[in-house]
Amino acid sequence: MLPLCLCLALIALQPLRAADSASAKSCFLGWIPVQYVPAGGDMVLDMHRFFEPGPGDRISLPAPRSKEYQASFDSDRFELKLSIGKDAKGILDIPIEVANREHPTGRTGVLTIVVGEPGVLPLSPTVFAESQLPGLITFRISSDSPITRISAVLERPDGSSSLTPFALLNGASGRVPTSELADGSWIRVVAADDQGRVSRAIRAQVRPKEGFQWQDGIIYYAFTDRFVNGDHSNDKPVKDPAVLPQANYYGGDFEGIQQKIEEGYFKKIGVNVIWLAPLNRNPDGAWKEFLPPYRSYTGYHGYWPVSETEVEPRFGGEAGLKDLVGTAQQNGIKIIADLVLRHVHI
């Protein structure tokens, strides 16, 4: 059995109050990425990585309400020390505050501790932002066990953060009211079930700016050679009896992807981003694997680039790529190019 783990995320602190001149140069640098620590273990966080303290600044934590964790702050090293109980599980939201020479500064945040295995589908709860209506964001929760804890944190545009109300409905969805929240704020949600299994953190923006937002991109990976053969004139399978049909070029190309865009295939399934398989020119012949059974393969997959700038002619070359991108843009679809920068065929 895998050990329980602890994920840690620190949300940005609130801006300095004008009256607090003693630490006027201090600032928060960013929130702590999710980290995993065994339950029953310790974690030491060097807060210099996330906060630039002013003279006399220290981190203040409330007394723990349970035996699930212990926390202390080393003001000399500016380190936050956490000890997690062996029986701890689920989610802990701990308010933190920056104090200056024992006096509160008004800069507060939320330290979210998640105790449990990392979110791995389908064994752990899954959370995703389902819809955004005027004054309301709805989150959908999928889990085969009852949801027992929810962490919902508001991240404001000015860098401040706080817990925000989350109404759990029938254990399958939840709502966050947004009418009084600033445009461009973010809501971050993490869920845990009664077994201590934890979802991944999901963030949804409050009233985002109009136009395409990358966090809303629905990506389709188009493996070019195996997708659709739209132009048979560029079909050039490698003529080598050692190459099985499955390891040779099938004839899929940019023209085939373009045709499916024009037919409305991608829009019908909700896709607005197409991720193209590697498109650099690959070698013309076949190459044998270096381990038994020594089968021969062609570069249909695109992972053997022989040129930094040439586009694979079997896929349509540079002209075909430009036509595909133009058609995609006309249909409101973004194109991501897979560039295999660490592979070179010699």
CATH superfamily of the largest domain: Glycosidases
Strand composition percent: 25-35%
Distance between the termini: 44 Å
What does the radius of gyration come to? 26 Å
Strand order of the largest sheet: 3-1-10-9-6
Which class of secondary structure composition applies to the elements? mainly beta
Unreliably modeled segments: 1-24
User: What is the count of distinct domains?
Assistant: 3
Looking at how many chains there are and whether they match, the oligomeric state comes to single chain
Encode the helix/strand succession as letters.
Answer: EEEEEEEEEEEEEEEEEEEHHEEEHE
CATH architecture field of the largest domain: Alpha-Beta Barrel
Fraction of residues in helix = under 10%
Described by the principal axes of the CA atoms, the overall outline is: elongated
Major sheet summary line: 5 strands, antiparallel
* CATH level-3 fold name of the largest domain: TIM Barrel
Number of strands: 23
Count of helical stretches? 3
* CATH top level class name of the largest domain: Alpha Beta
Mean pLDDT level? 84
What keywords describe this structure?
346 residues; mainly beta; Immunoglobulin-like; TIM Barrel; elongated; disordered N terminus
